[in-house]
Structures are given as C-alpha cells and as structure tokens.
Design a protein that fits this description.
eight-stranded mixed β-barrel, Sortase, Chain: A, single chain, five-stranded antiparallel β-sheet, about 10% helix, 2 helices, mainly beta
C-alpha cells in the first residue's frame, strides 16, 4: 500500500444540502477553523468524499459482493470495530448549511440522521468521523480495515453486525464524479464509514470510504 502523508486536523463533512445528499451525494470532508483542537492545523481545506463505484489505483477492495443478511434497523448509539480497537459513541448529526459536521469530540462518530438507519432494507447509512494528525481521531486508522472484517452497531435494544465488503481511497477529483453512488438512498441497505486521508500539511488529498453490509 502506498505510504500516506501525515493526516491533518479533524475533518467536517460538507454536503450540498439534504436534497443533493439524496440525489447527487455531493459530500466534502475537510475542516472549519472552529473544529480544530489546540495544536493541530486550523486552516485545512476541504476534500471531496466519493462514491463507491469505479476503482482507483489505490482501491483496496478485495471481497466479492454478497446479498446482505436480513436485519433490523438500529438507531445507532455505539460503533465497534474490533480489528481497529474502535469502541466509540455515535451521535446524530444534520447538515448545517452546506456542512455535515461530525461531533466536536474527535472520539465520537456522527451519524447522518436524515439518511438511512443502519440495518434498513434500503439506503446508505452514513457514519463520519474525525482524523487528527497528532493522534486521537476516532477514524485515524480507518484505512487499515480490510474486507471481511466485522463492524458492530449497538443501540439500547438491538445489535447490528456487519461485514466490510470494500475499502477504497479516492482522490478528491475522482470522488466528486462518483459521490451519487455511495450515498444512494435507494439501493440495498448498507453502511458507509467516511473520513479524511492523505494530509499534505495544507490540504486533504483523499478520503477513505468503507462499505459494510449486514451479516448474520
């Protein structure tokens, strides 16, 4: 795998509004100065989030697609990814103008509550999390997950088990072309985990997008 530049400050997910979210999927991940913790980079530019679809030279997807197992929609309250040591709270987030901003705590994951519930029969449930160059971002190591590894989402009364089907890192120019596909709210239900990647010191060049589907 290609060596990646050091990551930047926590990233905020920007959108083109709720309508575009459902149709064109025009997401961005980047940083607003108010989101930066002390000691990080308070002026990072935004980088576009892609769709799953056309692979790039840095596509790390390796497993074949299989129909998702029947599942019960879950109001997400906690995300666990055992292979990455992630056990993090999940809070609902909404678009604020053109931005969908993850929670200010870099160890908390944001779920886009105007989209699909994880485990729903249709739609892409979107969970966004921060990366932090100095460490401590909940999704700092998201690019290290591999197809076949497990993801769990918990609520008070339900537990949803998912298996990773693809891990893609897209340059922002490629992401913009295919964003509609990954955020499609009409396809068979699945989960998208999204964060920043390839920090140059002034900009995010890429985003990592992990797709997982319900499993028994």
């Amino acid at each position: 795998m290609t060596t990646r530049p050091k990551r930047g400050a926590p990233g905020a997910v920007s959108a083109l509004g709720a309508v575009a979210l459902l149709t064109a999927g025009g997401f961005l991940i980047g940083l607003g100065p108010a989101d930066a913790p002390v000691g990080d980079h308070p002026g990072a530019a935004v980088a576009e989030v892609p769709s799953a679809g056309r692979a790039t030279a840095r596509d790390t997807a390796g497993s074949r697609h299989e129909p998702g197992a029947p599942s019960t929609p879950v109001d997400p309250q906690r995300l666990k990814i055992p292979s990455l040591g992630i056990d993090a709270p999940v809070l609902p987030i909404k678009a604020d103008g053109l931005r969908l901003v993850p929670p200010s705590d870099p160890q908390t994951v944001g779920w886009w509550s105007d989209g699909a519930l994880p485990g729903a029969e249709r739609g892409t449930a979107i969970l966004a999390g921060h990366t932090v160059s100095t460490g401590g971002g909940v999704f700092n190591d998201l690019d290290q997950i591999r197809p076949g590894q497990r993801v769990k989402i918990l609520s008070d009364s339900h537990r949803l088990r998912l298996r990773v089907t693809s891990v893609n890192i897209y340059h922002k120019t490629v992401l913009a072309e295919h964003a509609a596909e990954i955020f499609d709210q009409n396809r068979q239900g699945r989960l998208a985990l999204v964060s920043c990647d390839d920090w140059t010191g002034t900009d995010y060049l890429s985003n990592v997008v992990v797709i997982a589907r319900p499993t028994r």
